[in-house]
Amino acid sequence: MTGDELSGDPFIRVDDVAMDYRVANAPVHALRRVAFTVTAGELICIMGPSGSGKTTLIHILGGLLTPTQGRVVVGGRDISHLTDNEASAYRNSTVGFVFQLFQLMPYYDAIENVALPLIFSGVPAPVRRERAREALTAVGLGHRHSHKSGELSGGEMQRVAIARALVNRPCLILADEPTGNLDRDATRTIMVLLKQINTGSRVTILVVTHNEALSEYAHRTIRIESGELV
Ligand SMILES: Nc1ncnc2c1ncn2[C@@H]1O[C@H](COP(=O)(O)OP(=O)(O)OP(=O)(O)O)[C@@H](O)[C@H]1O
Ligand SMILES: [Mg+2]
User: Fold this and answer.
1) Ligand 1: which atom is nearest the Cα of residue 56?
2) Residue 164 near residue 113, CB atoms below 8 Å
3) Structural domain boundaries of the chain?
């Protein structure tokens, strides 16, 4: 990333990206000719109506989907044609995901949930617990280590999920409606936290949201309608 910053290249470059899904042989044009760049360290809101292609775009940036057309470069690397193994290595090393429904493992406590990605990175168990503890403290949940998800509030579950997204020290966080299931106070807490992470460690963050008020936390808002940027 340092090289990119020196050369002035954007951290993310999305170039003429299209995504077609095929259902019962009829194509769904989820994204058409989408192009934009993101500078390292930006916090961006992505807004648009339901079905406009926001999740599809996030999944492409996160290496979960291969675009039908176009090119996506993240940190100087073309991620639009990765093999399955390359895509999981990319996700593990570079991306932290945060979802609307938190997606915590119900039988694991907070520490175990946060430590989970470190298993896939081959980090030894004692180090995993230590790093998970640090990440939980960083999201203000130092006192909730041994709570399972059923023993946490919605806002706390999302903070555990953010700690899990941070634990591998990603340079990109992709959050798909992270406050969609939270009330106003918890929404504020989550956005303040994402802003802190963004400012403190210069992590680039893309947040999908339907909530216009959240654009105040972002450097910039990208709007999408029917698969096209507007
Ligand atoms: N796996 C899939 N197979 C076929 N079509 C899909 C698939 N996933 C999404 N779509 C279609 O692609 C379009 C974009 O979907 P996407 O989930 O990206 O929208 P979204 O903007 O995230 O919507 P929402 O705000 O409701 O989450 C929709 O028309 C949807 O029906
Ligand atoms: Mg969506």
Assistant:
1) 18
2) yes
3) 42-65+82-222
Edge-first strand order for the sheet with 77-78 is 26-38, 12-23, 69-74, 77-78
Q: Is the CB of 107 under 6 A from ligand 1?
A: no
Written as tens digits, the pLDDT of the chain (230 aa) is 444 444 568 999 999 999 999 999 899 999 999 999 999 999 999 999 999 999 999 999 999 999 999 999 999 999 999 999 999 999 999 999 999 999 999 999 999 999 999 998 899 999 999 999 999 999 999 999 999 999 999 999 999 999 999 999 999 999 999 999 999 999 999 999 999 999 998 899 999 999 999 999 999 999 999 999 99
Place of tokens 């290595």: 89
Query: Ligand 1, from 17, 55, 101: best to mutate by most atoms within 8 Å of Cβ?
Result: 55
Adjacent-strand bridge partners of 31: 19
Is 155 a pocket residue for ligand 1 (Cβ < 6 Å)? no
**Ligand 1 binding pocket mutation candidate from 23, 28, 101, 211 (most atoms within 8 A of CB):** 28
Helix or strand (DSSP H, E) at 118:
helix 110-120
- CATH code matching the domain that covers 42-65+82-222, chosen among 3.20.20.300, 3.20.20.70, 3.40.109.10, 3.40.50.300: 3.40.50.300
